[in-house]
Structures are given as structure tokens and as C-alpha cells.
Amino acid sequence: MKEAKTCRHHPRLIAFAILLALGMIGMSGIGSSEELLYEPDVVVVMKNKAFQVVKGGPLENSLPTPAFSLPAGMDLAILLRNEDEVAHEFVSPLLMKAEDIEISGHATIVYTLTAFGVRVEPRDRVMLRFIVPEASVDRFHFWCNLHGKLLNDTMRGEIFILDAKQSSK
What we know:
Layout: H1 11-21, E1 42-47, E2 50-55, E3 67-71, E4 75-82, E5 88-92, H2 93-97, E6 102-104, E7 108-111, E8 116-120, E9 125-131, E10 139-143, E11 156-162
């Protein structure tokens, strides 16, 4: 009798594949005439190979990079709008910590060793919805894995978590 092999794939990837196969995750694009399921708390526009936080960001552009802050435990909806003629990605370690991420729109799932995200095709938009997780750190970076891998690239930004758990020392 042969010994059964255990699957060592990331459990979220397996769950996503099952939900996709069952048709429980919609993968069609959000058209401009379609109603959004949720009013977005944060709107991030990808334009001219740069991120712009047009809703939910700081009142003034006082930060050198695009940024927004979120309270831990918040039921969050982020709208990602790609206004460029090339695909962009929104990738962050914060999304690796979130559970039960809902994705509305046509998106390609992106995994790195330390982060998770989505690729948004040109002139398309994608909505992410999840509960902001408790975290031991209060700042997460986000980037486009295509145009923002390096620290000096323009497609990088920051997410600040308010009331984050203090790390024990």
C-alpha cells in the first residue's frame, strides 16, 4: 500500500482554487456602469505608473509616498482603479495577514514570499474587502510587483494600522 502524500501548498491558495472551481468567486470585471457591492473606504488609482490615494488617504499630500491609515478590526473595502495602459499590481504583506478576502472584479492573484496581492489589467478595477487584522507592527508597505520592486520606484506606498498590538520585548 502506498503512503499518501500531504499537500504543502499555501492553504489560502487551495481554498481560493476550490472556491473558484465552485464558482463562488466572481472573476468578471467591474464595469463602470455596474454598481459596486460596497462603498469603498479607500480608493487607490494606478496612473502614470504611480499610486494615488484619492479617497481615504491623508487630507494633505504631506507624505512623500502614497499612504492611508486603517483601524485594526475595520471591515474594509479598497477599490483599485488602473487608469494606465499597462497592468499593475497591488501587493502587501498586510493581505497575507488578512483572512477571508473578498475579491470583486477581474484579477490575477499574486503571491511573493512575504506578500499577497492582485494584478489589475489596464483600464480595469478590482475591489478588495476584508477585516483589517490585528498586527504586531503598525506600518505595512504596498507596491506594484511589476513597477515598484525597488525602494526608489514610484509604485510604492504605505498602510498605517491604528491601535496595533504592541510587540512584546
